[in-house]
Known about the structure:
By secondary structure, the protein is mainly alpha-helical. The protein has a domain at 2-74. It has seven helices and five strands; from the N terminus they run βααβααβααβαβ.
Amino acid sequence: MIAVDTNVLVRLLVSDNPAQGRASHRLFACEDVFIPDTVLLETEWVLRAAFDLTRADICTAFRRLCGLHNVTVSDGQLVAQVIDWHEAGFDFADAFHLALSKDQDTLKTFDADFIKNARKHTDRRVERP
């Protein structure tokens, strides 16, 4: 199994560089691929900030990508939860922070939107310090 960096995922998903896009497609066609959580996190940021992809487009792309038979992530259920929360309105990074904190009693933040989204979409405690 091989692991990939953000730039490989971005080339795979947007093919803005034809040669690198083809290389990424070949890689995903013939290798078992591990995608680290941090690569998913950075890829979402790049797709949103540099390519203006919508939340829906990013969630669709990630679901398809993570659903490939040869793709592995650290925790499939956790990543699925992050994608679902992002689709429901959470910032992608906040969704990851909350999902990765699943075994903790409370997540403390000064981010009012994070607290509001958490109360709306989950029973996990997210509150101000």
